[in-house]
């Protein structure tokens, strides 16, 4: 009895341990199950596995990913959808859009081309191909794509704009005009279209038509009337209607000055060019003071125009102010170092002042910049002759005669140089040629008679 009672505590201890183990296992199992449940709860129970999606399911998933800017995921779903339905044009187009968004133009164009092949009337595919080809400066391909689009829809505004930009880039202004006219007809109140139309008409030298549109714009868009009047002034200038252009541009400049707004550069420069052209007209008419005043006013609006300095230099030279003339020719030459005309005028002025080396320098520059200038070759030959360098003089004078075979002064000076070089028979032939061209040339007649007498004495 005593021994049986002693085993009871051991029994209860074993039972307690078993119960504790069972509780531990239950708790452990519960945690594991809870973790699995928590993990499963992160998946959307309403979203089926990608492997089980049908065509529509892939399309919906792709569009959702696209809306979330998940391009890789969207592309994967569209490609899976295309495997299920191989000839679906909208899916090809969507794949092209994603490649375009990722700047993969080669694959984008291939996908758009496939969409257009499957559905020839799919305007969006043709438009995207035209846009991407133009963006890559593949002009011929862009033309082809936009032509295909316009064949489907001749009134597609964006396609018309691409076509216009392609044509004007190639300076095919006449070909661009029908498309611009179409745009203007589609949106008659769109001032941007009208202004673009007028600008290309101007570039195509359709001045009257451009003028009509700009004048219309002045009325329909008064807020921009000043800009349109500036365009009218530019038109008038290109039409050689300088007085009218001057009046129109001066109005624009005056209003801008009063409003203390920045003067548009092209307006000021064209106004200066108008004054310069009017100055040339006055100068041709012998009204030197008026011409000089116009040139000086022109410089107030555009001091980087070498033509103004050049013409002002000529007017000052004609008036007898050689020093000022030289200064203005040199300024023109600094602006355009290859200005043959300014070099020639400087050479003549240096020659007139007896500065033969400087004169020869500028004549040489003029010949370098204008190989067809017989006058520069003649001037250089004459200077060499005055300096006693007859061999070089002969070379330059022969160039002048080659460029202008009946250049009497050059032939006469060449005859003199041949005499100096002890070549009387060549000189005699040249004097005879002078008299064939100009029978009243006294110096040639006198020199010829003297030369014949000298040759007669030697016989």
Word description of this protein:
By secondary structure, the protein is mainly alpha-helical. 80% of the residues lie in helices and 0% in strands. α4 (89-101) runs antiparallel to α5 (105-118) and α16 runs antiparallel to α17. The N and C termini lie far apart (182 Å). The relative contact order is 0.03.
Give a brief description.
The protein is an all-alpha fold and 459 residues long. Helix content is 80%, strand content 0%. The longest helix has 40 residues.
Would you spell out the secondary-structure blueprint of this structure?
Layout: H1 2-41, H2 55-67, H3 71-84, H4 89-101, H5 105-118, H6 123-135, H7 139-152, H8 157-169, H9 173-186, H10 191-203, H11 207-220, H12 225-238, H13 242-258, H14 265-284, H15 288-301, H16 306-318, H17 322-335, H18 340-352, H19 356-369, H20 374-386, H21 390-403, H22 408-420, H23 424-437, H24 442-458
């Amino acid at each position: 009895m005593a021994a049986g009672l002693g085993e009871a505590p051991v029994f209860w201890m074993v039972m307690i341990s078993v119960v504790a183990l069972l509780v531990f296992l239950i708790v452990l199992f519960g945690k594991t199950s809870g973790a699995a449940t928590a993990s499963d709860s992160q998946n959307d129970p309403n979203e089926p596995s990608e492997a089980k999606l049908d065509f529509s399911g892939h399309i919906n998933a792709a569009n959702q990913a696209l809306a979330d800017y998940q391009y890789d995921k969207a592309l994967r779903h569209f490609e899976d959808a295309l495997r299920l339905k191989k000839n679906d044009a909208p899916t090809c187009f969507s794949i092209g859009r994603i490649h375009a968004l990722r700047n993969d133009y080669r694959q984008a164009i291939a996908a758009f081309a496939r969409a257009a092949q499957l559905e020839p009337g799919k305007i969006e595919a043709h438009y995207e191909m035209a846009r991407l080809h133009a963006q890559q400066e593949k002009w011929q391909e862009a033309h082809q794509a936009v032509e295909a689009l316009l064949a489907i829809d001749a009134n597609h505004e964006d396609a018309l704009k691409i076509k216009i930009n392609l044509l004007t880039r190639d300076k095919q202004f006449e070909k661009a005009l029908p498309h611009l006219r179409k745009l203007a007809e589609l949106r008659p109140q769109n001032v941007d279209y009208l202004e673009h139309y007028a600008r290309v008409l101007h570039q195509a030298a359709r001045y009257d038509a451009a003028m009509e549109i700009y004048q219309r714009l002045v009325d329909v868009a008064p807020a921009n009337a000043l800009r349109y009047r500036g365009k009218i002034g530019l038109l008038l200038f290109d039409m050689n209607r300088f007085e009218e252009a001057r009046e129109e541009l001066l109005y624009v400049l005056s209003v801008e000055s009063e409003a203390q707004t920045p003067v548009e550069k092209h307006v000021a420069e064209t106004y200066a060019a108008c004054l310069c052209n009017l100055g040339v007209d006055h100068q041709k008419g012998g009204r030197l003071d008026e011409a000089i005043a116009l040139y000086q006013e022109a410089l107030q609006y555009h001091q980087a125009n070498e033509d103004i300095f050049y013409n002002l230099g000529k007017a000052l030279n004609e008036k007898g102010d050689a020093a000022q003339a030289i200064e203005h020719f040199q300024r023109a030459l600094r602006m355009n170092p290859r200005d043959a005309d300014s070099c020639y005028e400087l050479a003549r002025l240096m020659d007139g002042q007896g500065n033969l080396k400087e004169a020869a320098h500028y004549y040489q520059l003029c010949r370098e910049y204008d190989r067809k200038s017989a006058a520069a070759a003649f001037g250089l030959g004459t200077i060499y002759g005055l300096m006693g360098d007859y061999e070089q003089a002969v070379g330059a004078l022969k160039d002048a005669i080659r460029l202008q075979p009946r250049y009497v002064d050059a032939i006469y000076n060449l005859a003199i140089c041949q005499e100096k070089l002890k070549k009387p028979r060549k000189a005699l032939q040249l004097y005879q040629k002078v008299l064939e061209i100009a029978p009243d040339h006294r110096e040639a007649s006198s020199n010829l008679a003297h030369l014949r007498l000298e040759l007669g004495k030697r016989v």
